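Section 3.1: Structural characterization of target chains.
Under the original work plan, the team committed to producing a structural model for every single-chain target entering the pipeline before any wet-lab resources were allocated. The record below documents one such target. The sequence was received from the expression subgroup and is listed exactly as submitted; it comprises 245 residues.
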Amino acid sequence: LGADKARLWRAYHFNWLFFTSIAQGAVTLAVVVTITRGVWSRPVRRLALSFAAFLPFAWLLAIPILLNATHIFPWVADPSAIQPGKDAYLNVPFMSIRVLGLLGLLFYFDLRFAYWALRPDLGFVRDKTDSRLQPLYARLTRDWLGQDAEEARSAKKLGVLGPVVAVFLAVAFGVVSWDFVMSLEPHWFSTMIGPYFFMGGFLGGVAATVVVAVLYVLRGNARAIIEPVTLHDIGKLLFGFCVFW
């Protein structure tokens, strides 16, 4: 910060893109296997969904990027670098509105998806959990209708929220890739940068879920739940997307 402020904020920006895309990619994996009713994924779906805990912090951590845009984006430091006609789009106030607005909506629906995915489980174990956590579990399972009714209600909610998350993901990450990646070179453009960025994040999310699942098994926490066949299945999924990539 003292020696090279521009280098600091470029590194910060790069790391934000990397970790945010991986966290969203892991949540997207949970969304995809829920939409497709992938029964094989049930033992690892909660691990993928746990990455949603980072997303509110990712939204807050995007704000310093926008506040220090002069050190990151060449078109902010030198407005003459903007091609004629692009100045209506390439300006920091408009970029802040669309990035924070779209990411806020995406992360909101991510968290709603996580809530309805977890609610039946929370109700099932709330009376068996640590007494210190029971007030939290009680708040998250308010107006409990019974296990069977909650399972059906959850499935119905997820059937709606899953596609909504997918649509907002395509829009929000498309805009983020244009603003936070493509605009780093104001004179270069690509119609594929959105899908490229989105699929990179999804592949990273699948890989991160594999790492977490393996570490969880090696710690001895879930050997009876995450069986070798489950690890083999998610390993094949990772391999397939590596080939696609």
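The CA atoms of residues 95 and 178 lie 10 Å apart.
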